[in-house]
Design goal:
The chain has twelve helices and eight strands. The protein has 307 residues and is α+β, with helices and mostly antiparallel strands. It folds into three domains: 44 residues, Ubiquitin-associated (UBA) domain (Helicase, Ruva Protein, domain 3); 165 residues, 2-Layer Sandwich (Tetrahydropterin Synthase, Chain A); 59 residues, no CATH class. A three-stranded antiparallel β-sheet has the order 1-2-5. A three-stranded antiparallel β-sheet has the order 6-7-8, with helices on one face. A hairpin with a 4-residue loop joins strand 6 and strand 7. The chain is elongated and about 95 Å long. The chain starts with 5 loop residues before the first helix and ends with a helix. 35% of the residues are buried.
Length: 307
């Protein structure tokens, strides 16, 4: 039987994050071979993770990663079971490394992410070890990447401790203009986080959505007793107001000192540098959108973590 020292146990614990007793048992089973012990812990981690896979994960964190040249940005929503875990340094660091991996490897979907190199194994393996260690189900719910067009730029913003994340891209007439609008683009991402637009601009709104809005507006005006010929003149104005509610470019910019749209604010920033710029894409993730969250108090969260 191999002599398992405290130093060996400590080294394995630092490498895997597993508990001291789990590390000692794995080393005993592996007869002191650290590599085999890691494999044993991974397999045990997979078993523990499988038991937690059906637990509801509706809390979590949104994180972004933007390349140093601001030409590409990635965003990910990673869910866990409790807000308590979502705020831990370990979970935050894991989400940060996850979104960086997505960006660096140009990963387009969760299935590809699972197979990607991560830590000392694949992402899927590391995720299951992390689930076993933290004690909660962890799910990468959705990921996305935005790439800047030629002479374009990407920037982003994280709000409320990772509850909301935004990436936004703009096309510029030159790299000089891109550099000049960098901060404005981040402010626009902040605007998007707060105002929750559904579309980039009026051109991106589906025709069926516009038709439905026209139907609703017409029904309201008929109820008010407006004649048909008057209604036809009023509806275009209502659709314009609809665009100002749901389209980023047409929304009133929250940081403007005087009334101006987001598109106007960006254009003004570009003109100040002698150039032109326009928004071309955005992504907004909010933790738990569309998910049913468990009603859980702190005592329940602690009990769940210990189970």
């Amino acid at each position: 039987m191999a002599n398992i020292t405290a130093a060996m146990v400590k080294a394995l614990r630092e490498k895997t994050g597993a508990g001291m007793m789990d590390c000692k048992k794995a080393l005993v089973e592996a007869e002191g071979n650290e590599e085999k012990a890691v494999e044993i812990l991974r397999k045990k981690g997979l078993a523990k993770a499988a038991k937690k896979a059906d637990r509801n994960a509706a809390e979590g964190r949104v994180e972004i990663y933007i390349t140093p040249d601001y030409k590409q940005g990635s965003i990910a929503e990673v869910n866990c079971e409790t807000d308590f875990v979502a705020k831990t340094d370990e979970f935050i660091e894991f989400v940060s490394e996850t979104v960086k991996t997505i960006n660096v490897n140009d990963i387009a979907d969760v299935e590809s992410l699972n197979k990607a190199p991560f830590g000392s194994g694949t992402f899927e393996e590391e995720l299951k070890v992390k689930i076993a260690k933290i004690g909660e189900n962890i799910v990468v719910r959705r990921i996305a990447t935005i790439k800047a067009p030629e002479n374009g730029i990407v920037n982003g913003y994280i709000h409320a401790g990772g509850k909301v994340g935004v990436l936004v891209a703009a096309a510029c007439d030159s790299e000089k203009t891109c550099e000049a609008i960098k901060d404005t683009l981040r402010d626009i991402a902040m605007h998007i986080a707060a105002m929750k637009p559904q579309y980039l601009n009026p051109e991106s709104v589906p025709a069926e959505v516009i038709e439905k809005e026209k139907e609703i507006a017409k029904a309201q005006l008929l109820k008010e007793g407006k004649p048909e010929n008057v209604i036809e003149k009023i509806i275009p104005g209502k659709i314009k107001r609809f665009y100002s509610d749901v389209c980023v470019t047409d929304q009133e910019y929250v940081k403007a000192e005087k009334k101006e749209t987001v598109a106007e604010a960006l254009s003004k920033a570009a003109k100040a540098a002698g150039g032109e710029a326009k928004l071309v894409d955005f992504i907004r993730f909010e933790v738990g959108e569309g998910l049913v969250k468990n009603a859980c108090n702190m005592a329940d969260e602690v009990a769940a973590a210990l189970s």
